[in-house]
Design goal:
repeat, 18% strand, PA_domain, five-stranded mixed β-sheet, alpha+beta, 12 helices, elongated, 569 residues
Length: 569
């Protein structure tokens, strides 16, 4: 919602009925009333602004602090007419003191101040997993607030467990406890409301110390719920916490006097969790010692960064930012969906009752290929994004708005890479080349952009081929046919006829061919003669060597000792 801010000259805290009307005129922005914090309940300020015709109310903080949650007053403490709280329909927002002062300064200078209220951007959305907390209480006798909390847990359980099991979210429950001042540790009030010697306390459920359950019963059950989550989380099933809390609220209510340890044990056993581990985690609630679980809960109450302290029950923290909205399944689920990084939200966030699919109208203004049913429009919880898709492991590249082009080695497998293709007379041609990472090029025999069209080239008419004197050219789709007269053969690579035509046409071509054949013949004969001569010489030398072992040859000199007498003969 976009509106123009107005800061009233009187009744600046908004605690009284506004005399003037803040109803916007046709064609103008809605009116956002800026009021100061203090002097009355937040709800009364919003009610007065709504009755004055304002479309929204901004409450400027009166102190420098992390922003708190604007809570409604306790039942019976709002005004003489408490039912007005349920009739408030305009959005409200608490803004920091610094922002309030800046708006007031701009308005005092005569400037127009327009504000865009978009709660979806109020929550961080850094990645594909959302971390969130529910600060709750096991007390079921605190009036409408407790009833709303129990109803929320029951209605939200299914969605919470689905998101947790699929790994989309990481949930953790938390519990607020107080400590008893040391001077009052031995008092009746502290003993009935606290455990571990006054370290961890909760208010009496009925606000009556003489009847019903005590505050310490609530603290112990809070501790059991926290320990149940710890054991379930360690076993890899943290979503069982939702089952335990809902089952306990049904089976062990205070009004039926079943808010006991025995009833809790029965619920834990029915869910199959290790009861001994839960009891070991709870420990001795009468010991004068710290409990690690509850001590950690008290430390976690202190605000960190922009979160602020946890002071109101229930409180939801999403991605370390306090959720400011209605405690209902639809509202909280929308807040969780807004906390995912764009395009990473689960399918539950994209159902028609959760958001509007902007890709259904005019394809969201993104690129699309209607013939292949491919689009760059991706629906997200915050709106559509134009992003070139990945189809069958083929990545499309481009701006996503006017152009997306298939890239990579497999691109021709998806809609022919976005390139032209055609078939005619049993022949098929494509302008997509698999070994090219991108681009389209008309195949040989065609010309065009390669994307929308490739037109056949008439090689005969344009005299691009089959131009020899005895050639007859006939154009075909994507190619041509060339025939030679007189039974000659057409050599396409040289665009010439060979055979009889070559002999009659001139001696240049045929003379070269016959000269080449003659050279081959002469070379073959010479090689054979040389080979025969070498074999003859080799055989002759071998024979001579063998015979020389038995008799002298004519051309071999006699041994100088051949005719010498042998001694001893």
């Amino acid at each position: 919602m976009i509106g123009s801010v107005v800061y009233p000259r009187v009744n600046q805290n908004g605690c009284k009925t506004f005399d003037g009307s803040f109803t916007s005129k046709p064609g103008s922005f809605p009116t956002f009333v800026l009021v100061d914090r203090g002097d009355c309940f937040f709800t009364l300020k919003a009610w007065n602004a709504q009755n004055g015709g304002a479309a929204a109310i901004l409450v400027a903080d009166d102190r420098v602090e992390p922003l708190i949650t604007m809570d409604s007053p306790e039942e019976g403490n709002g005004s003489n007419n408490d039912d007005y709280v349920e009739k408030i329909s305009i959005p409200s927002a608490l803004i920091s003191m610094a922002l309030g002062d800046s708006i007031k300064m701009a308005l005092s200078n005569g400037d127009m101040v327009n504000v865009n209220l978009d709660w979806r951007e109020a929550l961080p959305h850094p990645d594909d997993r959302v971390e969130y907390e529910l600060w709750t209480n096991s007390n079921d006798e605190c009036g409408p607030k407790c009833e709303n909390l129990i109803n929320f847990v029951k209605s939200f359980k299914g969605a919470a467990q689905l998101l947790e099991q699929k790994g989309f979210t990481q949930f953790a429950p938390h519990y607020i406890t107080w400590y008893c001042p040391e001077a009052f540790i031995l008092s009746k009030q502290c003993k009935s409301q606290c455990i571990n010697n006054g370290r961890y306390c909760a208010p009496d459920p009925e606000q009556d110390f003489s009847r019903g359950y005590d505050g310490k019963d609530v603290v112990i059950q809070n501790l059991r719920q926290a320990c149940f989550f710890k054991v379930a989380n360690e076993s890899g099933k943290p979503w069982q916490w939702w089952d335990y809390v809902t089952d306990f609220s049904i089976r062990c209510p205070m009004r039926e006097n079943k808010f006991t340890e025995e009833c809790s044990d029965q619920v834990i056993k029915s869910l199959g969790l290790d009861l001994k581990k839960v009891k070991d985690c709870v420990g001795d609630t009468h010991a004068n010692a710290e409990n690690p679980i509850l001590k950690g809960e008290q430390d976690a109450q202190i605000g960190k960064g922009n979160r602020g302290d946890i002071t109101i029950l229930p409180t939801i923290v999403i991605n370390n930012r306090q959720y400011r909205g209605k405690l209902s399944r639809a509202a909280v689920l929308k807040a969780l969906c807004a906390s995912f990084q764009e395009t990473t939200e689960p399918s539950i966030c994209l159902t028609p009752d959760m958001e509007t699919n902007e890709c259904l109208q005019n394809n969201g203004g993104c690129w699309q290929d209607t013939s292949a049913n491919i689009t760059a429009c991706r629906d997200t919880f915050r709106g559509r994004v134009c992003e070139c898709p990945i189809v069958q492991n083929v990545k499309f590249a481009g701006d996503g708005y006017t152009h997306c082009e298939a890239t990579g080695a497999l691109r021709c497998a998806v809609n022919n890479g976005g390139c032209w293709k055609g078939a005619q007379g049993g022949r098929a041609y494509s302008a997509c080349i698999d070994d090219h990472t991108k681009g389209c090029k008309c195949p040989p025999g065609f010309r065009g952009d390669g994307v929308h069209s490739c037109e056949d080239i008439d090689e005969c008419k344009e005299k691009l081929a089959c131009q020899c004197p005895e050639c007859k050219c006939k154009n075909t789709w994507g190619s041509y046919e060339c025939k030679c007269n007189g039974g000659l053969y057409y050599a396409r690579e040289n665009d010439m006829c060979i055979g009889k035509y070559s002999a009659s046409a001139g001696s240049g071509g045929s003379g070269f061919v016959w000269m080449f054949v003659l050279i081959l013949a002469v070379a073959g004969a010479a090689g054979f003669a040389f080979y025969k001569y070498r074999i003859q010489r080799y055989m002759d030398s071998e024979i001579r060597a063998i015979m020389a072992q038995y008799m002298p040859l004519d051309n071999q000199p006699e041994d100088s000792n051949h005719n010498q007498p042998h001694h001893g003969v």
